[in-house]
Design a protein that fits this description.
Helix content: 55-70%
Number of domains: 1
Number of helices: 2
Order of helices and strands: HH
Largest sheet: none
Distance between the termini: 58 Å
Length: 71
């Protein structure tokens, strides 16, 4: 029978914990990027609604962001 105070925490560098942490971090990163690109896509579609931005300027802005996103 174990005593209540005899719990020994796992080593924080335990490979299983490190692997799980890395997996969660990558999933969070992917989710954040998906949300960001979704937001950016929505904003790109509404650029021409902004006073002073016409089709040509909107196209240049969209082209710039697409170029940056590919890098």
């Amino acid at each position: 029978m174990m005593k209540a105070n005899s719990y020994v925490p796992k080593n924080p560098l335990d490979p299983t914990l490190t692997q799980a942490w890395n997996k969660g971090r990558e999933a969070g990163k992917k989710e954040a990027l998906d949300q960001f690109y979704g937001f950016l896509k929505d904003r790109m579609q509404t650029l021409t609604e902004i006073e002073g931005i016409g089709d040509k300027t909107a196209w240049k802005i969209q082209e710039h962001f697409l170029k940056v996103m590919k890098e």
